[in-house]
Predict the structure.
Amino acid sequence: MSACAGCGLELGARYIMEALGENSTLVIPPGCAALFSGYGKETVTKIPGFQGNLENTAAYAAGIKAGYEMQGREDITVLGMAGDGATVDIGLQSLSGALERGDKILYVCYDNEAYMNTGVQGSASTPTYAWTTTTPGGKQGYRKNLAKIVDAHRIPYLATASIGFVEDFRKKLAKAKEATKTGPAFIHLFAPCPTGWRSRPDTSVEIAQLAVTTRCWPLFEIVDGVLSITKEVKKPKPLTDYFKLQGRFKGISDEQVEAVRQEVDAAYDRLMEGRV
Amino acid sequence: MKRVMLDGNGAATEGMRLARIRVVSAYPITPQSPISEKLADYVTDGTLDAKYIRVESEHSAMSCAIGAQLTGVRAGTATASVGLALMHEVLGVAAGCRVPIVMPVVNRSLVSPWSLWCDHQDAMAERDGGWMQFYAESAQEVLDLILIAYKLAEKNDVLLPAMVCLDGFFLSHMPDAVYVPAQEDVDKFLPAYKNDNLKLDPDDPMFINDLTGSNEFMEMRFQQAVAFDYAQDLMPGVMAEFEEAFGRKYSMVEAYECEDAEAVLVSLGSMSGTIKHTVDMMREQGRKVGMLKITSFRPFPAEAIRELIGHVPHIGVIDRSASLGSETGPVCNEVRSALQVLDKAPEVQGFVAGLGGRDVPPTTIEEAFDTLLNDKTVAAVKWLDVQDNALRLREVDA
Ligand SMILES: Cc1ncc(C[n+]2csc(CCOP(=O)(O)OP(=O)(O)O)c2C)c(N)n1
Ligand code: SF4
């Protein structure tokens, strides 16, 4: 059982498990994270886990949490760890349900910006102009703003994170875990996928850092409704530094790069004003 | 034990309360909504010590219930029709993970077209998914079958989820005098839930429901099939225990006036009451008819059916659902294959009736009996009360 070389999700999962500790329970839907669920009688997790369906990670987690609560075991952290497809597309309904109800679960969406496990098909989180097998000419239109959707539920803790900024991620995991004492906590984790992004495995961390330093993936958190950027990017790097490391942006034109520049800068400005 | 007026939904709710479910995740759908509402009342006023999760869909309702029950508590939910269909994917998870959830299903037609009313198409579409299925004839049976279902489902040799099916409106909304057992008596009959099999517990970590290769998958499916055999073997004992505790007698199939019958109609659910009534009427006229009610459709009591009606020359089965593209309805198919192994297998005539809530009055039942007695059997299936020219339906007003 192993992920592809250079998998951002695998790195992310290590930090997540470390932060959670043993007194936790894991829900994983189909997707690349199911590599950790295991195969047959083998699993890599040392905590109890359940592989659910693609649409209902949050619902399983909510039920598990309720079962524990009813047995006086409120101290167990229940984590849903789902891909972007399982979160922004097919799983959005159950996620929204759990967030609105205030279920005390931790949900980490690892975002590799496509459906990787089924062969790199586009998701609502695939960025504009990125190639996937179902957006062969580059994706038209914008990616769904997941943080904004989650924020609309007014949960105690919401953050974006990246495997390229480990200390920032660790701090956020600790805060998120703490926040589940009062309600849902959500982390949107940037996780490069060399296989789907057509990038070299040894560049995953570099790509993840560039996504932040170009403002493509801003790092921020929203604690009880108050937004703060946790990694300011005053002078963003050229987008081409980021794009050129990835085969999925191979066909991008200069005008398209400019359009993305305007988009990400506008999004960043909104964050600076405290809005998602 | 007290006797109170309850409709079928009320009886289902009392059954769940008495089983002390600890987590409720329910989503409203006609004609089941009163179950979700009453459970909310019970949790709010403290009658039921449970957490109520106001889920956003039936898919999530079943998912929540599975998650909760895997931690070691009974979890409750209820549904009907498209709600059951939406659960389909997750019903298989409960069954395969051997989570013995007991769920009232208030039978209602499946779209399209839309219908709010009763037939069994919803539950029949789930008949092969690894859930036990029990069909109630009265509100009393709803309550009793829920308790019986829990007792059986949770046995270590069984560990199968169970649907207790009740006919929409005919049972769900019809008040009746129902004996409600005392909590202490139910506690003795149905001790607290304990899951010794698959469970989520940080003190004993295991990973449940991961990808399984073809070297093991079939064996796991086979284990489920074996569990149905055990359920079939253990059910009479559970029903006897129930009778001892509460005084009411149940069996997987109930034969009514079958011994000397020349014609017998087989049915499920509330329609059985009408058939019994028609049997009484026709017997008064000297006509030898009988009824066989199937209470446990899954596991299917083939052996008992052979014993009880194998000798009857004319047998008809009334399905309250259609198996489209098949020769006849699902129950008829099962009864036929149960009987065909007999040396002198009786002919089995299929009937389809009562779809979309259409009433099945004694006159319709009598017509079915007449068909059998006069040997006017048609090749495969006869749709009762359907208009001669069903293809000409309605003029649409502009
Ligand atoms: C109802 C349903 N539809 C489709 C699938 C097939 N499927 C399995 S994994 C997957 C993609 C998951 O993508 P994502 O959540 O982004 O995770 P990743 O594979 O990228 O890790 C799909 C579509 C499924 N398991 N269930
Ligand atoms: S396909 Fe991508 S996300 Fe999936 S294991 Fe490989 S590198 Fe990781």
